[in-house]
Structures are given as structure tokens and as C-alpha cells.
Amino acid sequence: MTDLPELLAQTASALVGTVAGGAIALYVARWQTLRTAAIQAETTTTQENAAVRLAHSLRVRERETAASRALLDRLDGLYQWLPSLPDVAEEHPTLSEHARSNCSKAMQSVRSGMNTDLLMISDPLVRDRYRTLVALLYDIGWRGAGRAHRERQIRDARHYLRHVQHTLESVIDGAPLPRHAAPPRPDRPGDEAWLPPDLPPHWSDPADGS
To answer: Which of 19, 78, 109, 123 is deepest in the core (most CB within 10 A)?
Structure first.
């Protein structure tokens, strides 16, 4: 028959084991709860950060799209008056005074866009092409660069303007920008007009007039 002291020792050992096991189970459960909460908090933070980045990206895209459309409107306003571009600084325009005045006003609008709408577009290549267009327009219109090649002046300006239009349309569409090309030099010799490396499909349309 088991002695009483031995029985008590066994009972005490069992109780200690039970208590210890319960404490360990409680600790593990608590650790798992805290770990789960930490993972959930981390996941929530990650999702919130992703949502913030997405919202910012959408705002930037919306802003750049609106700015590109505004710049396209300015370019559209100039396009029809480009035949009078070489007349802007001339005392006696080849075409009408009315056309020269409208061309000059449209040039000012395009230049104004460089200091307003263009600043809303972050891509430095887009900015550079637009600023290059403004410089080209003023070189031809006010400095008289390439005066001996009037038709080429007009076509150079028209084609580079179209290149910039194509670039802005790519911003709106979220498409790759047209390939880079050195802009036309209005003082160069010869009558061959400048052409960009990537031609939009509508350029092949005879009704386009390019």
C-alpha cells in the first residue's frame, strides 16, 4: 500500500504539472493573440499606406491629364494661325493683319501655358518638349530665324507642334511617350521640313493638311 507521504507528493506533483501546463497554455494563447493583433495591425497599416499611395497617384494623374488637355487647347488655338507665324515681327505681313494678330495672341497663350499648366506635369521630357516648342515659335516668329525658307518655317513649327501634341496625348492615355528627337533648327540651310520619328496614324490622312 502506498505511503501517505508518497501519495501526497504525487498529488502535489500532478497539481504543479496541471498549473504549469495551464500557465503555459495561457501564455501561448496570449502570445498568439498578441501576434495575430500585431499582424492585423501591420496588414491594416500596409493597406492604408497602399490606399494613400494609390489616391495620391490618382490625384497626380488627374491633375496631369487636366493640364495636358489645357495645353492641347492652347496648341489647337495656334495651329490654324501657323501660316502667319513668319509674319509676326514683319512690318508688312504676307498674309492679313488679322491673321498675324491672332497668331501673335495664340503664341502668347502657348507661352503662358509654359508657366501655368505645364508646371502640373512632372515628366521632365514632356516639359522640355513643350518649352522647346515655345522657343522654336518665338525664334521663327520674333527673331525671324530661317526667314529665307518661309514654307519650311511653317512646316517645321507645325510638325514640332504635332510632336508635342502627340506627347501630351500620350500623357492623357498613359501611353509611352513618342521617341526623343532633336528639334528642328530654323537657321539650317535647305528646304526639307523637320519630321518627328513617330508619326501618329492620322498624319497620313490627306485631309490633315500636314
So the answer is: 78
